[in-house]
Structures are given as C-alpha cells and as structure tokens.
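Tutorial handout. Part one gives the primary structure; part two gives the three-dimensional structure as tokens.
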Amino acid sequence: MICPGTTIHQCVNVTQVCDGKPDCPGGGDESPLCNNDQCSIDNGGCSHTCHRSPFGALCLCQPGFHVQNTTNYKKCEDINECIENPNACHQYCLNTNGSFMCSCAEGFVLQSDGHSYETGIRLLTTRQSIMEWFSPTLRTYGQINLGPNMRYIIAFDIDNRTNTYFWSDLVTNIIYSRTERANNYTKLITSGNSFIADMAFDWIGRNLYWTDYMLEHVEVSTMDGRYRRILFHENLTNPWSIAVDPRAGLRYLFLTDWGKNPRIERASMDGQQRLSIVNDSIEMPVGLTLDLIRQEIYFTDHHLNFIEVVNYNGENRRKILANSHFLHGPISINVYEQYLYWYDSFSNEVRRLNRFEHGIKAQKHERILSRSGIISMKMSHQIYQPYETNPCQQSRCTQLCLLSHTAPLGYTCACSTGYILEQDQITCAKDHSPFIIYMRRDTIGGISVRHNQQYIDENSNYDDLWERFVTVTDLHNGYEFAFDEVNETIYWAQVNGFLPDGTLK
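Part two.
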C-alpha cells in the first residue's frame, strides 16, 4: 500500500496497515477508522479479502485476480495471464479461473517449470554444403552430402516427410533437390533464375516457393519442378526472405522486401490478398522466420540492427534485441524451443538468447558457433511441418494447385508461365495472344501486347515483362536473337569481345 499524504511514494506491506504501529511518515497508515471494523459486516462488501485501512474497508484480491473495474473496487476479476503476459507459456496457454495452464504441441513434453522441451535437430548452410547440427548448443554436427560441384548455396529448405532437401546455387542459378538416400541430386529448375535469395517448401500443398532478388518477383513450382509460374511481381524491388504457413485456416505466405518500400508482407499462398503488415521503423528486413505455434513472425533488420516480433496480422510488435554489442548485420534467424538463433554477418557468429525473458535478462545471449559463410538456418522436426490433409489431393487442376486462404475448397488452380486458365478454372491452355520478345544485355523476356506499353527502355517498369515465357537469364552481352514459334525455342548470340580487325567475336 502507498503511504497516504506523502510526496515520495513510499510503500508499506498491507499487514503493517492498521496494526497499531505507525510505519508511514506522519503515521498515515494508522487512523481512527482502523478501529471501525467495517470488514466484520458482510466482509466489507469485498468479493475476496477485506482488510482494515485508514480509509475504511480495503478490498484485496487473491493471486490470479485483480480489481479491473474502477467503478467497483470491491469486485475481483480473473486475470487472463495468456493475454496479459504473452510469454507466460512457450507454446499453448489456457486461461483458468485465477490461474493458467501451459501445454505443448505434439512432439514436445512439458517440463516441471512449465517450459517445453523436445529433441529435434537444426540445419545450417554454408557456401558449399548443408551442415546438420544435433544439439541446442550446436556442438555436434554432420555434413549432408549434396553432390559435387556445389559452389555457393544461398537458399534451401527441407521436406521432413520425405527427407528431401531443396537448394539453389547462386553461381549456376539452378534449383536442386535430393532425398536423403538418393545417390545423386536432381536439377529441378535450370533456367529463368537470376538471384534466388530464399525458398520455402509447402509441406501440405507440396509446392516450392522462392524469391528472386534480381528479377524482383516471387515464384512457385510443383515439387518436381514440372510446372512453375510467377506468383506476383508488382511493387517488389528487393524481395529476400520467404516463409509459409500452409495449415488450414491460415495458408499464408510471408516475405521481406528491403527495396523502395521496405516492409514485411503477407499474402495468401495463391498470391492473392497481399498486405503490408510491417512498414514503419524498418529499413532492411533480411531474416524472417515463423513460430507456427504462437503464430508470430520474427525478423531482423540488417541496417538498424534489431530483432523484433509481430503476430500474423502485424500487431503486438515487440523488440527482442537492439543496440547490442553483438548485433551487427543480423541476417538469418530461427526459433527453437524458447531460444532465438541468429547469424551475425559482422562477427561471423551464430548467437542465441531466451526469447521469453525480459529486462536485463533479455540482453543476455551467448555465442553458439563461430563460422564464416553461413547464409541460412532451418529447423528440421515434425513440429515445424505438422501433418494435415492436402486439399489439392481432391483437385482436378491440370498444372498447379495452390493452397488458398480464402478459396472455398482451400485451393485454387493456376497455370505455368505462358498458359492461361480456361473458364472451368481447372484446365490450362496455351496462351496464343500476341506478345513482344525483347532483349537486354543479360535478359530475354516477353510482354503481352495487351498492356499497350509504348516503348521499353532502361527506365521502364519491368513488372509485366516476365509473364509470357520463362525469362532467359544466362546470357552475357546479348547481341541478337531469333524465336522459333513452332518448337518454342529461342536462339541468341552474344558478344564476347572484338577481333583485331574490329569485328565481333
């Protein structure tokens, strides 16, 4: 209780109030009203505990309750700890009358302190390999054999159900896949990529999503790479990290863009309903990961040097770490149990902290690993890819079946680049409408005539230039090209220099 009548807020224990001994300056904790025991009449009107005070009956609440209604200070109401303290539980929180209960997702067990624990593994990439780590402190590890000639792995993900790894090589601009027991890798996507920054596997709908930093779009393909399409490209300038939550009722895609309009964006996994959910006080969002259980997004800012978290709607934004001596250029990020892991590109270290601690404790983090060249971190465990029935198994889509947040059946049919969806919204047919093929020094693309663009130059908006066929990106100093419409083949010549007589080489 605060001592009455004092300019300095001095507090005394409620047991010291009206005990016959003055404990506050001036004896404000004692008064003649202390002798008027109002608590003896109907408990002073209090719903819980009544205590004598210098002002009459003082109502106190039991643990787990508080006086919420200021107009009725005698009534105690339950505290919803799950809302008041989002970190009360690591995973699921159930409010009870006067208390709360924590529970765990499948694959986790509850410890005696109410925290969750499980024995999963985590994965990290380096430039030439994928390293597999088996302990929370990253002390035990192995190397996953992807095959020879891997030069710069920058993006990867895993299908836990089939133990299939997907990754891209920045040098070859090829997307590969390999199952754990396979003798060699498979080339899934061999053309039309320029700089694959990140990828995310939809473990329910069985599709692969990725961001292309240079071509400024998000693309999706079937798991085998047979069908692919640009999901969206409008208003993207530097797309980087991508993550998906394909569970029923959600089916969201999240990505970061640190270009002209830095932001965290959410969209339905069929590319519809794009929404910017974080766009203020942010400059270069690079790392992004999801906490599926709590439905939260953790992200890093490479320029402002902070780690923050918001929910799937962009609400309840909270700062996890900022202005730390050990936070310079954070890029990759992931969560595992109560810990948050990130890779610092300045110190070449993987560090972690307890994401549920507050105050001074929240600033305490430890170095787990010192290793250069780490690009991406992913977690591999069933909890990170919980099994659900795939609604696309019942679809009749002829090419792509994309999970959808709003579609009545939970999915929409889509077509590869160069194809259009017929009126039945199921069948894909070749798009025979006229289009223009154009060449830049490093790119050959196609644009539909229906856009009525008057001219194309270096200042043009290239948002619509990739829609008619898969963009050709593996050319240098393009000089001339020809298109065989019958065989759907493009031929081109490129300049590699000049001969002594001045002719092209």
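Part three, for discussion. Residues 234 and 463 are 6 Å apart (CA to CA). Residues 435-494 form one domain.
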